[in-house]
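Why does residue order matter? Because the sequence determines the fold. Keep that principle in mind as you read this record.
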Amino acid sequence: MTVISITIPSELVKKVDRLVKERGYYSRSEAFRDAVRSLVAEAEMERLEEGRLAAVILIASDLRRKDVDVKLVELRNEYEDVIVENLHRHVENEYCIDVFVAQGERRRISEFVGRVRGTRGIREVRSVFLPLKGSP
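Structure:
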């Protein structure tokens, strides 16, 4: 295995150490390898030029930003050809959590995710892409 040195802030090291303990990783290196594998898999999926995917997109926004809710409804309607389900919940009087399930062409789903990421008031966007059979 190749050794790679990285520099990260001490506060992030504390969070990584907590994660290593909570998830039962053998070491920091194992946790970083897992994180890098996830990052690479996501990037590879985004690079696909063609193909059909299923995707789950998780969005967190500030509960007080009503304009975000309006924008997400507009986007859901604009991308109704790939959005097959949407769940919206308020959490702890602080967050709006939206979960979108999508199915269709990779390019169209990635476009939707990009538009969501570009929406003001969005705090976090996470997505999982799954290639569908018959995709290149």
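The radius of gyration is 18 Å.
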